[in-house]
Structure formats: C-alpha cells, structure tokens
Amino acid sequence: MHVTIIMFKFANMETKIAILRGINVGGKRKILMADLKTLMQNLGYENIQTYIQSGNLIFEAGERQQNDQLAENIESAILKQFDFQVPVIVLSKNEIESAIANNPFYTADADINKLHLTFLNKIPEQDKQEQLETVNYKPDQFKIMGKNVFIYCEGSYHKSKLTNAFFEKKLKVKATTRNWKTVLKLWELSRE
C-alpha cells in the first residue's frame, strides 16, 4: 500500500507591517531583532522580516486576521516574554501604500528628511481632530487623515512639539512615528 502525504500552506496569507513603539531607544526596552523574529514565528506568522533596530516588522498572517487583533497578540507576547509593554500598530501593505500616495507634504521637490508619519491605532474622534487643528507650531505642520498624521518638520523632529505623546494626549489614541525614509522602505519591503 502506497501512502502519499500532502503538506498544505495557507493560501490566503496577507502581508502586514507591525510598528513597535519605543524599543531599543536609550538603552531601554531592549529586544534583539532575532528574538523578535523568533517570537513572531512562535505566534505562527510567516516570512518575517525586520527593518532596523527600532521595531519594524513585515510578516504574513492569515487574511482574516484583523490588524487590531494582530497588534494585541504581538503586544501580549512581548509582555509575556520580555516583561514590559510595547504599543504595536499593525497595517496592511495597502494602508501604507495609501499613506504614501496621500501625504500632502510629499511633493516632487519635497525634502524627505523633513517628512514623518505618525501612525494611529484608530481614527480619532472628530471633535478631538477639530480641536487639534487649531494648534499652530509653525514652521512645523501636520495634517490628520484617517489613522495617519502627516508631519513636516522644518528642523529636527526630536526638537518638534509634534511628538507621539502630543498626539496621544490630544487625540486619545496610541501613536508611533517613523521618518519618511523608513515609511518608504517598509512599503518597499512589503512588496517583495
């Protein structure tokens, strides 16, 4: 009698981008990227890539898994393994592509070193957005569009008042920011 064993791979996988806030900054909340990759593999995710030490992941998950649930799973696993909390925001590659296409400051002559994107874990309430739109920190500028805050910083982002803490406090959401070069690289990696 001849037995054939067939291995199946889930055909309906979707590429996701996870952005972790505040790891490996100033010697605090250290997570080696190899350890983070292993943690993701243990959660059952596939084709995991990391990008730079600040906590950027590209991976594949079942297409029916919601971004919020994926973020919660990763946060819980990090807390269990490393004993500290790390906010995580998960996006689809379509969401990051849409953010790139809709950045009002990303023009043909833009200096991308002055551009940043703050990712929010949910769309802020309309009244909070309207209150925030009255704030003026020129020459720095920002524009809220859905779950994204596009930022233009004339000087260094680290000297700007348009920080994660600022947006979290005013909008009552979780936030994490990446410079525009990192945003473009994450999009590029998600397409490989």
Automatic annotation (TrEMBL):
UniProt-listed InterPro entries: DUF1697
A Pfam family per the record: DUF1697
PANTHER family documented for this protein: BLL4334 PROTEIN, DUF1697 DOMAIN-CONTAINING PROTEIN
Lineage: Bacteria, Pseudomonadati, Bacteroidota, Cytophagia, Cytophagales
Protein name per its UniProtKB record: DUF1697 domain-containing protein
Gene3D superfamilies: bacterial protein sp0830 like (3.30.70.1260), SP0830-like domains (3.30.70.1280)
